[in-house]
Amino acid sequence: MNRRSSGFLLSKAIEGFLIFKAAEAVSKNTIISYTQHLRDWVNHCGDVEVGKITSVELCDYMAYLRTEYKPRRLCGNNVGPLAPKTLRNIWVTFMAFFTWLTREFELENPMKGVPVPRFKKAPVDVFTKEQVELVLKACDQCREAETADRRKYTSQRASSKRDRAIILTLLDTGLRASELCSLRVGDVDMKSGRVEVKHGITGGAKGGKGRSVYLGKSTRRVVWRYLVDREDGDQADAPLFLGKFGRPLNKDALRLLLGRLGQKAHVPKCHPHRFRHTFAITYLRSGGDVFTLQALLGHGSLDMVQHYARIAEVDIEQAHNRASPADNWRL
Asked: Which of 1, 181, 219, 241 is the most exposed place for a label (fewest CB within 10 A)?
């Protein structure tokens, strides 16, 4: 049966693509990204036949995203254009989608005529010790308020213990936002500080790769203090960090929380990935090696770790020499 043209609509193709990707154990976040990008595209161009989509139409859509599209951001800043990195991510989604179509239905791949959006990698920005202290302080008290007779006061924030535990966990482990939000109480061993980041869609690990990271003694104390006040703090299957109404904390809520704490503490760019950068740079400057850091961060290659090493002014050659089995074992 020839399904290259009539009767095979874009919406049907997207449905099949997402089913195939879910079966390949692609991460939950990647599936969400694919879904958002492709549905936005259908809403803009209509439910057309997949065999009639051309490179010109795709180039026009990318140009529209770059110049006219008004993003709907969670933070409320809907004025600026899409970031170059976001445009690149959308291009990657389209390439994955049409590559799948080409393989499954022998269609021509129109993405071959769509250039890759260029973007510069954002500089790695890390927190200073003083900035982290300010953000931790902002966890403790609400903003200053006034009574009817103009007497100023501050009160303790209800979520202060949780927020301090979140910040120190991010700082101590370098976890991604999705990985932190996917943690369960049973994933943390309070005696050893070992934290199991589980593989698969439910674990939040990028690419489905599980690993172990570790909490220091100070962070363990703060996390324990947060959990001891919770009724479900001893239940292994309970989420490690809760959001509103006792629901598991999600990535968007985490970003909003950190952004507001940073604003309150006058610390700009307070977001989860900056804690990951800070962990990596501090780890290397404290004498850690690039290979262990690669495992702790869950990177598939050394590329990003080497980038951290250049920033931290670590001699990678010396790090390799210290770790080389052939040299150390005198083979």
From this structure: 1
